[in-house]
Amino acid sequence: MKANIKGFFKPLVESLIAIIIGMLIGAIILAFSGYSPTEAYVALFDGALGSKYGWAMTLSAATPIILTALTFGLGARTGLFNIGAEGTVYFGAIAAIIFTNILGNVLIGLLGGIIAGLVWMSIPAFLKVFRGVNEVVSTIMLNWMAYFIALYIVLQKIPNPDDPNKTIAVPVSARFPIVIRGTELSWAFVISVAAALIAYYILWHTTLGYELRVSGYNERAARYGGINPKKAVIWSFLLGGIMSGLAGATEVMGRPPSYAISQGMANIYGYGFDGIGVSLVGRNHPIGIIFSGIFFGMLKAGATAMQIEAGVPLEMVRMVQGIIVVTVAIPGLLDLLKRVVRK
């Protein structure tokens, strides 16, 4: 019991210390650049948490990155460095748009995202298991392939004939209801939290989850224990594909006002990469990822307030955000490196 409590509080304390250090470094940079750190951080927290609208925007921003973080986290627990969520998000969003325009239903849209995620993530899974290709190499290359394939589909196959700046929209019947009117928070957030809880249950309360964790901890020991590490790798990729495919689907089905993919895919770009940081901060634990995702959502939601209320330029806001993110992610990254070395 004491070991469990220590195992819970130690990462929590380390993350809190990292947050404080990151904010102090950011404050120093703001001060040397001629801006008030106090005003900037007050604006950040007030914009993200100071009102019902702020909370709604924070949770809305957290929705897709919780799901993409689960992709990385499931891989990390299996001893993989799966950074392929970015490309999978694109196809999840495209599939949701196409499926819902054929049959305007929320479940059909989610199914489209899941299928797209499974199909795309099966490629690096095959390359890893049957060809021995390192997942970092394959997923980086596949991310770029996904970007240009998806861009072609967005611009050439599903453009909105009435508005060339975006694709055709998800029909009204397949959109997630808005939780708080006038905000971007929809019931898609519930999907992301439910996915995290399901991932937690799979990892710690099923035979499959045990096999994933043992394979990630020590592949040789897993073999001696009758566990097939290749099977664990395949399941890890497929489960991760489901999560990031859902991230793309929920983004276009639950994000007003367009409910579509913008030209250049600006509104779905970067979620896969953000998910890596979210997972590291959450120590690759599904429950930790929920809170980490909300923290990242707070940084995103409060950025506008920092610009308007504190007069901090966008470039400086992003620099401060980046410093905080990198600092907070370091403990999780060290844990991951220790696990790799031990393996």
TrEMBL record:
Keywords, alphabetical: Cell membrane, Membrane, Transmembrane, Transmembrane helix
Localisation per UniProt entry: Cell membrane
TM helices/strands, residue ranges: 12-33, 53-76, 88-116, 136-155, 185-203, 232-249, 287-308, 320-337
CDD domains (UniProt xref): TM_PBP1_transp_TpRbsC_like
Membrane topology classification: Multi-pass membrane protein
Gene Ontology molecular function, alphabetical: transmembrane transporter activity
Claim: Transmembrane helix is one of the keywords in the record: yes
GO cellular component: a single term: plasma membrane
Pfam families (alphabetical): BPD_transp_2
Listed name of the protein: ABC transporter permease
Taxon lineage: Archaea, Methanobacteriati, Methanobacteriota, Thermococci, Thermococcales
